[in-house]
Protein backbone atom coordinates (compact mmCIF):
# COMPACT_ATOMS: atom_id res chain seq x y z
CA UNK A 1 0.00 0.00 0.00
CA UNK A 2 1.00 3.66 -0.41
CA UNK A 3 2.95 3.13 -3.62
CA UNK A 4 4.24 5.95 -5.81
CA UNK A 5 1.50 8.46 -6.52
CA UNK A 6 -0.35 7.60 -3.33
CA UNK A 7 -0.44 10.38 -0.82
CA UNK A 8 -0.80 9.51 2.86
CA UNK A 9 -0.58 12.36 5.35
CA UNK A 10 -1.06 12.27 9.10
CA UNK A 11 -1.93 15.46 10.98
CA UNK A 12 -0.89 14.91 14.57
CA UNK A 13 0.83 16.24 17.66
CA UNK A 14 3.91 14.67 19.25
CA UNK A 15 2.19 14.14 22.62
CA UNK A 16 -1.16 12.72 21.46
CA UNK A 17 -1.83 9.10 22.41
CA UNK A 18 -4.59 9.01 19.78
CA UNK A 19 -2.14 10.02 17.06
CA UNK A 20 0.20 7.26 18.17
CA UNK A 21 -2.48 4.62 17.71
CA UNK A 22 -2.48 5.56 14.04
CA UNK A 23 1.33 5.86 13.84
CA UNK A 24 1.79 2.38 15.32
CA UNK A 25 -0.59 0.85 12.79
CA UNK A 26 0.90 2.76 9.82
CA UNK A 27 4.39 1.61 10.79
CA UNK A 28 3.40 -1.98 11.55
CA UNK A 29 1.79 -2.24 8.13
CA UNK A 30 4.76 -0.60 6.45
CA UNK A 31 2.63 2.21 5.04
CA UNK A 32 4.63 5.29 4.10
CA UNK A 33 3.20 8.58 5.19
CA UNK A 34 4.04 12.20 5.69
CA UNK A 35 3.84 13.36 9.31
CA UNK A 36 2.56 16.89 9.85
CA UNK A 37 2.92 18.39 13.32
CA UNK A 38 -0.06 20.55 14.25
CA UNK A 39 0.02 23.45 16.66
CA UNK A 40 -3.34 23.13 18.42
CA UNK A 41 -3.11 26.72 19.62
CA UNK A 42 -2.87 27.80 16.00
CA UNK A 43 -4.63 25.20 13.86
CA UNK A 44 -3.60 24.96 10.24
CA UNK A 45 -6.12 25.63 7.45
CA UNK A 46 -5.52 22.02 6.37
CA UNK A 47 -6.62 20.69 9.76
CA UNK A 48 -9.71 22.91 9.92
CA UNK A 49 -10.64 21.93 6.39
CA UNK A 50 -9.97 18.20 6.91
CA UNK A 51 -11.75 17.86 10.22
CA UNK A 52 -14.32 20.66 10.32
CA UNK A 53 -16.58 18.63 12.59
CA UNK A 54 -14.23 18.11 15.54
CA UNK A 55 -11.15 20.20 14.61
CA UNK A 56 -9.02 17.57 16.33
CA UNK A 57 -6.01 15.41 15.61
CA UNK A 58 -5.25 12.82 14.44
CA UNK A 59 -6.49 13.26 10.88
CA UNK A 60 -5.43 10.89 8.12
CA UNK A 61 -5.53 12.26 4.59
CA UNK A 62 -5.30 9.54 1.95
CA UNK A 63 -5.11 10.83 -1.61
CA UNK A 64 -6.77 14.03 -0.49
CA UNK A 65 -9.59 12.29 1.38
CA UNK A 66 -9.60 13.05 5.12
CA UNK A 67 -10.59 10.77 8.00
CA UNK A 68 -10.85 11.60 11.69
CA UNK A 69 -11.26 9.58 14.94
CA UNK A 70 -8.26 7.38 15.70
CA UNK A 71 -10.12 4.06 15.95
CA UNK A 72 -12.10 4.75 12.75
CA UNK A 73 -8.77 5.50 11.03
CA UNK A 74 -7.21 2.28 12.36
CA UNK A 75 -10.15 0.22 11.05
CA UNK A 76 -9.79 1.96 7.69
CA UNK A 77 -6.08 1.17 7.47
CA UNK A 78 -6.85 -2.46 8.26
CA UNK A 79 -9.43 -2.45 5.49
CA UNK A 80 -7.03 -1.16 2.81
CA UNK A 81 -3.85 -2.93 3.85
CA UNK A 82 -3.82 -6.63 4.62
CA UNK A 83 -0.34 -6.93 6.15
CA UNK A 84 -0.13 -7.15 9.95
CA UNK A 85 -3.89 -7.34 10.41
CA UNK A 86 -5.33 -5.54 13.41
CA UNK A 87 -8.77 -7.15 13.23
CA UNK A 88 -9.47 -10.89 12.86
CA UNK A 89 -11.28 -12.33 9.83
CA UNK A 90 -14.02 -14.07 11.76
CA UNK A 91 -17.10 -11.80 12.14
CA UNK A 92 -17.70 -12.79 15.76
CA UNK A 93 -14.07 -12.21 16.79
CA UNK A 94 -14.17 -8.86 14.99
CA UNK A 95 -17.32 -7.94 16.87
CA UNK A 96 -15.61 -8.81 20.16
CA UNK A 97 -12.61 -6.66 19.26
CA UNK A 98 -14.89 -3.74 18.34
CA UNK A 99 -16.88 -4.20 21.54
CA UNK A 100 -13.81 -4.14 23.77
CA UNK A 101 -12.13 -1.24 21.98
CA UNK A 102 -15.36 0.76 22.39
CA UNK A 103 -15.30 -0.22 26.07
CA UNK A 104 -11.73 1.07 26.41
CA UNK A 105 -12.77 4.39 24.91
CA UNK A 106 -16.05 4.90 26.76
CA UNK A 107 -15.20 3.50 30.17
CA UNK A 108 -11.47 4.03 30.49
CA UNK A 109 -10.28 6.84 28.20
CA UNK A 110 -13.20 9.16 28.95
CA UNK A 111 -12.49 8.72 32.66
CA UNK A 112 -8.73 9.06 32.51
CA UNK A 113 -9.19 12.38 30.70
CA UNK A 114 -11.09 13.57 33.78
CA UNK A 115 -8.24 12.48 36.02
CA UNK A 116 -5.87 14.58 33.93
CA UNK A 117 -7.78 17.84 33.65
CA UNK A 118 -10.45 17.98 36.34
CA UNK A 119 -10.38 18.38 40.11
CA UNK A 120 -12.39 17.60 43.20
CA UNK A 121 -15.38 15.30 42.94
CA UNK A 122 -15.35 15.10 39.14
CA UNK A 123 -11.73 13.97 39.12
CA UNK A 124 -12.39 11.44 41.86
CA UNK A 125 -15.32 10.05 39.87
CA UNK A 126 -13.06 9.81 36.83
CA UNK A 127 -10.44 7.90 38.81
CA UNK A 128 -13.04 5.51 40.18
CA UNK A 129 -14.45 4.93 36.70
CA UNK A 130 -11.02 4.39 35.18
CA UNK A 131 -10.10 1.90 37.87
CA UNK A 132 -13.36 -0.01 37.44
CA UNK A 133 -12.71 -0.20 33.69
CA UNK A 134 -9.20 -1.52 34.32
CA UNK A 135 -10.63 -4.20 36.61
CA UNK A 136 -12.98 -5.35 33.85
CA UNK A 137 -10.14 -5.33 31.31
CA UNK A 138 -7.91 -7.26 33.73
CA UNK A 139 -10.58 -9.94 34.07
CA UNK A 140 -11.00 -10.08 30.30
CA UNK A 141 -7.26 -10.44 29.72
CA UNK A 142 -6.94 -13.09 32.44
CA UNK A 143 -9.75 -15.05 30.78
CA UNK A 144 -8.07 -14.92 27.38
CA UNK A 145 -4.81 -16.40 28.68
CA UNK A 146 -2.95 -14.93 25.68
CA UNK A 147 -0.12 -12.42 25.56
CA UNK A 148 -2.30 -9.66 24.12
CA UNK A 149 -6.02 -8.93 23.80
CA UNK A 150 -5.58 -9.77 20.12
CA UNK A 151 -3.94 -13.13 20.84
CA UNK A 152 -0.24 -13.74 20.34
CA UNK A 153 0.06 -10.57 18.31
CA UNK A 154 -1.58 -7.23 18.98
CA UNK A 155 -5.04 -6.35 17.77
CA UNK A 156 -7.46 -3.45 17.86
CA UNK A 157 -8.03 -3.59 21.61
CA UNK A 158 -4.29 -3.55 22.31
CA UNK A 159 -3.91 -0.57 19.96
CA UNK A 160 -6.78 1.20 21.70
CA UNK A 161 -5.46 0.67 25.23
CA UNK A 162 -1.72 0.50 24.53
CA UNK A 163 -1.12 4.19 25.17
CA UNK A 164 -1.35 3.56 28.91
CA UNK A 165 2.05 1.86 28.79
CA UNK A 166 3.56 5.27 28.01
CA UNK A 167 1.06 7.92 29.15
CA UNK A 168 -0.67 6.53 32.25
CA UNK A 169 2.07 7.09 34.83
CA UNK A 170 2.51 10.66 33.68
CA UNK A 171 -1.25 11.32 33.76
CA UNK A 172 -1.38 9.94 37.30
CA UNK A 173 1.53 12.14 38.36
CA UNK A 174 0.13 15.32 36.86
CA UNK A 175 -3.42 14.59 38.04
CA UNK A 176 -2.16 13.60 41.46
CA UNK A 177 -4.24 10.42 41.62
CA UNK A 178 -3.10 6.83 41.28
CA UNK A 179 -5.34 4.63 39.19
CA UNK A 180 -3.18 1.65 38.27
CA UNK A 181 -2.05 -0.81 40.92
CA UNK A 182 0.14 -3.58 39.48
CA UNK A 183 -0.81 -5.84 42.38
CA UNK A 184 -4.50 -5.44 41.59
CA UNK A 185 -3.87 -5.76 37.84
CA UNK A 186 -1.00 -8.23 37.33
CA UNK A 187 -2.11 -9.33 33.84
CA UNK A 188 -2.35 -5.74 32.65
CA UNK A 189 1.02 -4.93 34.23
CA UNK A 190 2.67 -7.73 32.26
CA UNK A 191 0.70 -6.78 29.16
CA UNK A 192 1.96 -3.18 29.37
CA UNK A 193 5.56 -4.41 29.50
CA UNK A 194 4.99 -6.72 26.53
CA UNK A 195 3.29 -3.93 24.60
CA UNK A 196 6.24 -1.60 25.10
CA UNK A 197 8.60 -4.32 23.91
CA UNK A 198 6.97 -4.47 20.49
CA UNK A 199 9.61 -2.91 18.19
CA UNK A 200 7.15 -0.54 16.47
CA UNK A 201 5.97 0.76 19.82
CA UNK A 202 9.41 0.79 21.43
CA UNK A 203 10.81 2.94 18.65
CA UNK A 204 7.79 5.21 18.32
CA UNK A 205 6.52 7.04 21.35
CA UNK A 206 7.18 10.39 23.00
CA UNK A 207 9.82 10.70 25.67
CA UNK A 208 8.03 10.17 29.00
CA UNK A 209 9.99 13.00 30.61
CA UNK A 210 8.87 15.39 27.86
CA UNK A 211 5.24 14.48 28.46
CA UNK A 212 5.09 15.78 32.03
CA UNK A 213 5.38 19.51 31.34
CA UNK A 214 2.93 19.21 28.45
CA UNK A 215 0.39 17.30 30.51
CA UNK A 216 0.75 19.92 33.24
CA UNK A 217 -0.04 22.57 30.65
CA UNK A 218 -3.18 20.65 29.60
CA UNK A 219 -4.28 20.44 33.23
CA UNK A 220 -3.80 24.16 33.56
CA UNK A 221 -5.76 25.17 30.46
CA UNK A 222 -8.69 22.90 31.34
CA UNK A 223 -11.01 20.59 29.40
CA UNK A 224 -12.04 22.90 26.54
CA UNK A 225 -8.50 23.19 25.22
CA UNK A 226 -7.13 19.91 26.52
CA UNK A 227 -9.57 17.70 24.64
CA UNK A 228 -8.33 18.59 21.20
CA UNK A 229 -7.47 15.01 20.46
CA UNK A 230 -9.61 12.15 19.33
CA UNK B 1 -27.30 -25.30 5.80
CA UNK B 2 -26.33 -24.65 9.37
CA UNK B 3 -29.37 -23.93 11.51
CA UNK B 4 -29.40 -20.23 12.24
CA UNK B 5 -30.71 -19.49 15.66
CA UNK B 6 -31.04 -15.78 16.27
CA UNK B 7 -32.42 -14.30 19.46
CA UNK B 8 -32.73 -10.60 20.21
CA UNK B 9 -33.16 -9.25 23.72
CA UNK B 10 -34.81 -5.85 23.50
CA UNK B 11 -36.95 -3.20 25.10
CA UNK B 12 -39.95 -1.95 23.13
CA UNK B 13 -38.99 1.72 23.08
CA UNK B 14 -35.21 1.46 22.76
CA UNK B 15 -33.89 3.05 19.55
CA UNK B 16 -30.74 0.95 19.96
CA UNK B 17 -32.86 -2.19 19.72
CA UNK B 18 -34.91 -0.87 16.79
CA UNK B 19 -31.76 -0.45 14.72
CA UNK B 20 -30.91 -4.11 15.11
CA UNK B 21 -34.47 -5.18 14.29
CA UNK B 22 -34.48 -3.11 11.10
CA UNK B 23 -31.17 -4.69 10.05
CA UNK B 24 -32.50 -8.21 10.63
CA UNK B 25 -35.74 -7.39 8.79
CA UNK B 26 -33.91 -5.83 5.83
CA UNK B 27 -31.80 -8.95 5.44
CA UNK B 28 -34.75 -11.26 5.95
CA UNK B 29 -33.18 -12.96 8.97
CA UNK B 30 -35.75 -14.70 11.19
CA UNK B 31 -35.27 -14.09 14.89
CA UNK B 32 -36.89 -14.66 18.23
CA UNK B 33 -37.58 -11.43 20.08
CA UNK B 34 -37.38 -11.43 23.87
CA UNK B 35 -38.81 -8.38 25.61
CA UNK B 36 -36.81 -7.21 28.60
CA UNK B 37 -37.99 -4.91 31.35
CA UNK B 38 -34.91 -2.73 31.69
CA UNK B 39 -36.14 -1.44 35.04
CA UNK B 40 -36.24 -5.00 36.33
CA UNK B 41 -33.49 -6.81 34.45
CA UNK B 42 -33.76 -10.54 33.97
CA UNK B 43 -31.06 -12.99 35.06
CA UNK B 44 -30.71 -13.83 31.34
CA UNK B 45 -29.83 -10.25 30.41
CA UNK B 46 -27.39 -9.90 33.29
CA UNK B 47 -25.75 -13.16 32.31
CA UNK B 48 -25.49 -12.31 28.61
CA UNK B 49 -24.32 -8.71 28.99
CA UNK B 50 -22.58 -8.50 32.36
CA UNK B 51 -20.35 -5.61 31.23
CA UNK B 52 -23.09 -3.11 30.34
CA UNK B 53 -26.30 -4.86 31.46
CA UNK B 54 -28.13 -3.26 28.53
CA UNK B 55 -30.21 -4.14 25.50
CA UNK B 56 -29.89 -4.92 22.66
CA UNK B 57 -28.18 -8.26 23.02
CA UNK B 58 -28.03 -10.53 19.98
CA UNK B 59 -27.47 -14.24 20.38
CA UNK B 60 -26.54 -16.01 17.15
CA UNK B 61 -25.97 -19.75 17.39
CA UNK B 62 -24.97 -19.20 21.00
CA UNK B 63 -22.54 -16.38 20.20
CA UNK B 64 -23.43 -13.36 22.31
CA UNK B 65 -23.08 -9.79 21.04
CA UNK B 66 -23.83 -6.43 22.64
CA UNK B 67 -23.67 -2.74 21.56
CA UNK B 68 -25.96 -1.83 18.67
CA UNK B 69 -23.27 -0.61 16.22
CA UNK B 70 -21.15 -3.70 16.89
CA UNK B 71 -24.22 -5.87 16.29
CA UNK B 72 -25.03 -4.03 13.04
CA UNK B 73 -21.54 -4.67 11.67
CA UNK B 74 -21.74 -8.32 12.69
CA UNK B 75 -25.13 -8.75 11.02
CA UNK B 76 -23.77 -7.08 7.88
CA UNK B 77 -20.76 -9.39 7.73
CA UNK B 78 -22.68 -12.54 8.49
CA UNK B 79 -25.62 -12.06 6.12
CA UNK B 80 -24.46 -10.69 2.79
CA UNK B 81 -27.84 -9.82 1.24
CA UNK B 82 -28.90 -6.17 1.37
CA UNK B 83 -25.51 -4.77 2.42
CA UNK B 84 -25.69 -2.03 5.05
CA UNK B 85 -22.19 -0.58 5.07
CA UNK B 86 -20.79 0.81 1.81
CA UNK B 87 -18.32 -1.41 -0.09
CA UNK B 88 -15.66 1.28 -0.53
CA UNK B 89 -13.29 1.43 2.50
CA UNK B 90 -13.31 5.23 2.64
CA UNK B 91 -17.10 5.42 2.49
CA UNK B 92 -17.30 2.73 5.19
CA UNK B 93 -15.03 4.79 7.42
CA UNK B 94 -17.12 7.92 6.82
CA UNK B 95 -20.32 6.05 7.67
CA UNK B 96 -18.77 4.89 10.95
CA UNK B 97 -17.53 8.40 11.66
CA UNK B 98 -20.96 9.99 11.14
CA UNK B 99 -22.77 7.29 13.09
CA UNK B 100 -20.47 7.91 16.05
CA UNK B 101 -20.84 11.66 15.71
CA UNK B 102 -24.63 11.54 15.64
CA UNK B 103 -24.75 9.13 18.57
CA UNK B 104 -22.66 11.43 20.73
CA UNK B 105 -23.86 14.85 19.64
CA UNK B 106 -27.50 14.39 18.69
CA UNK B 107 -28.69 11.39 20.66
CA UNK B 108 -26.93 10.98 24.01
CA UNK B 109 -25.83 14.47 24.85
CA UNK B 110 -28.08 16.20 22.38
CA UNK B 111 -31.80 16.02 21.90
CA UNK B 112 -32.78 13.96 24.95
CA UNK B 113 -30.69 16.21 27.17
CA UNK B 114 -32.27 19.32 25.62
CA UNK B 115 -35.76 17.93 26.14
CA UNK B 116 -35.14 17.36 29.85
CA UNK B 117 -33.12 20.47 30.67
CA UNK B 118 -34.31 23.79 31.98
CA UNK B 119 -33.04 27.34 31.60
CA UNK B 120 -29.41 27.76 30.59
CA UNK B 121 -28.82 24.03 30.37
CA UNK B 122 -31.61 23.82 27.80
CA UNK B 123 -30.22 26.66 25.69
CA UNK B 124 -26.79 25.05 25.68
CA UNK B 125 -28.00 21.55 24.84
CA UNK B 126 -30.35 22.85 22.16
CA UNK B 127 -27.60 24.93 20.60
CA UNK B 128 -25.14 22.08 20.32
CA UNK B 129 -27.82 19.64 19.06
CA UNK B 130 -28.82 22.04 16.29
CA UNK B 131 -25.18 22.59 15.37
CA UNK B 132 -24.79 18.83 15.04
CA UNK B 133 -28.00 18.53 12.99
CA UNK B 134 -26.63 21.14 10.59
CA UNK B 135 -23.68 18.87 9.89
CA UNK B 136 -25.96 15.92 9.26
CA UNK B 137 -28.09 18.10 6.95
CA UNK B 138 -24.90 18.88 5.06
CA UNK B 139 -24.19 15.18 4.65
CA UNK B 140 -27.66 14.51 3.24
CA UNK B 141 -27.67 17.26 0.62
CA UNK B 142 -27.58 15.85 -2.87
CA UNK B 143 -27.38 12.27 -1.61
CA UNK B 144 -30.70 10.92 -2.80
CA UNK B 145 -33.35 9.27 -0.68
CA UNK B 146 -30.98 7.97 1.98
CA UNK B 147 -27.45 8.59 3.28
CA UNK B 148 -26.21 5.70 1.16
CA UNK B 149 -28.06 6.84 -1.96
CA UNK B 150 -31.16 5.12 -3.23
CA UNK B 151 -31.14 2.29 -0.71
CA UNK B 152 -31.25 2.34 3.06
CA UNK B 153 -27.97 1.59 4.85
CA UNK B 154 -25.94 1.62 8.05
CA UNK B 155 -26.00 5.36 8.61
CA UNK B 156 -29.75 5.52 7.99
CA UNK B 157 -30.25 2.83 10.63
CA UNK B 158 -27.92 4.67 13.01
CA UNK B 159 -29.88 7.92 12.70
CA UNK B 160 -33.31 6.41 12.08
CA UNK B 161 -34.49 7.22 15.63
CA UNK B 162 -34.63 10.87 14.59
CA UNK B 163 -37.56 10.16 12.28
CA UNK B 164 -39.98 8.88 14.92
CA UNK B 165 -38.49 9.41 18.37
CA UNK B 166 -37.23 12.97 18.08
CA UNK B 167 -40.74 14.33 17.38
CA UNK B 168 -41.97 12.58 20.54
CA UNK B 169 -39.17 14.16 22.63
CA UNK B 170 -39.96 17.55 21.11
CA UNK B 171 -43.59 17.12 22.08
CA UNK B 172 -42.94 15.90 25.58
CA UNK B 173 -40.16 18.41 26.25
CA UNK B 174 -42.01 21.30 24.57
CA UNK B 175 -38.98 22.05 22.48
CA UNK B 176 -38.42 22.58 18.76
CA UNK B 177 -35.26 20.94 17.54
CA UNK B 178 -35.89 19.68 13.99
CA UNK B 179 -37.24 22.65 12.08
CA UNK B 180 -38.14 21.33 8.59
CA UNK B 181 -37.56 24.73 6.98
CA UNK B 182 -34.07 24.83 8.45
CA UNK B 183 -33.32 21.15 7.73
CA UNK B 184 -35.23 20.32 4.52
CA UNK B 185 -32.99 17.42 3.48
CA UNK B 186 -33.30 15.84 6.92
CA UNK B 187 -37.08 16.34 6.92
CA UNK B 188 -37.35 14.63 3.52
CA UNK B 189 -35.12 11.79 4.71
CA UNK B 190 -37.23 11.33 7.87
CA UNK B 191 -40.29 10.86 5.70
CA UNK B 192 -38.55 8.33 3.44
CA UNK B 193 -37.29 6.46 6.48
CA UNK B 194 -40.55 6.04 8.40
CA UNK B 195 -42.24 4.88 5.20
CA UNK B 196 -39.66 2.25 4.36
CA UNK B 197 -41.25 -1.23 4.40
CA UNK B 198 -38.76 -2.59 6.94
CA UNK B 199 -39.48 0.27 9.34
CA UNK B 200 -43.12 1.30 8.82
CA UNK B 201 -44.99 -1.42 10.66
CA UNK B 202 -42.49 -2.01 13.43
CA UNK B 203 -42.42 1.40 15.11
CA UNK B 204 -43.74 1.61 18.66
CA UNK B 205 -47.16 3.35 18.94
CA UNK B 206 -46.80 7.09 19.32
CA UNK B 207 -49.24 7.45 22.20
CA UNK B 208 -47.44 4.75 24.15
CA UNK B 209 -44.11 6.55 23.55
CA UNK B 210 -45.59 9.86 24.72
CA UNK B 211 -46.73 8.33 28.02
CA UNK B 212 -43.38 6.62 28.54
CA UNK B 213 -41.24 9.68 27.84
CA UNK B 214 -43.45 12.02 29.85
CA UNK B 215 -42.77 9.79 32.82
CA UNK B 216 -39.03 9.60 32.10
CA UNK B 217 -38.84 13.37 31.71
CA UNK B 218 -40.22 13.87 35.18
CA UNK B 219 -37.82 11.30 36.60
CA UNK B 220 -34.75 12.62 34.79
CA UNK B 221 -35.20 16.37 34.83
CA UNK B 222 -31.92 18.36 34.80
Quick synopsis:
With about 230 residues, chain A is α+β, with helices and mostly antiparallel strands. Chain A is built from eleven helices and four strands.
Order of helices and strands of chain A: EHEHEEHHHHHHHHH
What is the ordering of alpha helices and beta strands of chain B?
Answer: EHEHEEHHHHHHHHH
Total strand segments of chain A = 4
Estimate percent helicity of chain B: 55-70%
Strands ordered across the widest β-sheet of chain B:
2-1-3-4
Quote the beta fraction of chain B.
Answer: 5-15%
How far is it from the N-terminal to the C-terminal residue of chain A, by CA?
25 Å
Unreliable residue runs of chain A: none
Q: Tell me about the biggest sheet of chain A? A: 4 strands, mixed
Coarse structural class of chain B: alpha+beta
Distance between the termini of chain B: 53 Å
What is the CA-based Rg of chain B, rounded?
Answer: 17 Å
Mean pLDDT of chain B: 94
The outline of chain A comes out as globular
Largest interface between protein chains, with number of residues from each side: A-B, 21 and 23 residues
How many H/I helices of chain A? 11
Amino acid sequence: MAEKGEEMKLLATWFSPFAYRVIWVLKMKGIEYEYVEEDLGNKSPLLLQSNPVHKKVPVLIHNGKPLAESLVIVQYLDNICKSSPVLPDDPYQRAMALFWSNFVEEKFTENIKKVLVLGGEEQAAGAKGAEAALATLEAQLAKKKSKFFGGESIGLVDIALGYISVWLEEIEEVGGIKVFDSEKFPCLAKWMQDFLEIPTVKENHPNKADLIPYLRYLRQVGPAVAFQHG
Amino acid sequence: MESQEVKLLGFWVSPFVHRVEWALKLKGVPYEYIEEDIFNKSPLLLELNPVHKKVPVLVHNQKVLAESFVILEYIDENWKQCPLLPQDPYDRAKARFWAKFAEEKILSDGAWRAARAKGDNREKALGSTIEALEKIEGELKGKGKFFGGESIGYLDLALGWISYMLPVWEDVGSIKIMDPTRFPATAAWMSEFVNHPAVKDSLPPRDKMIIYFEKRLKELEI
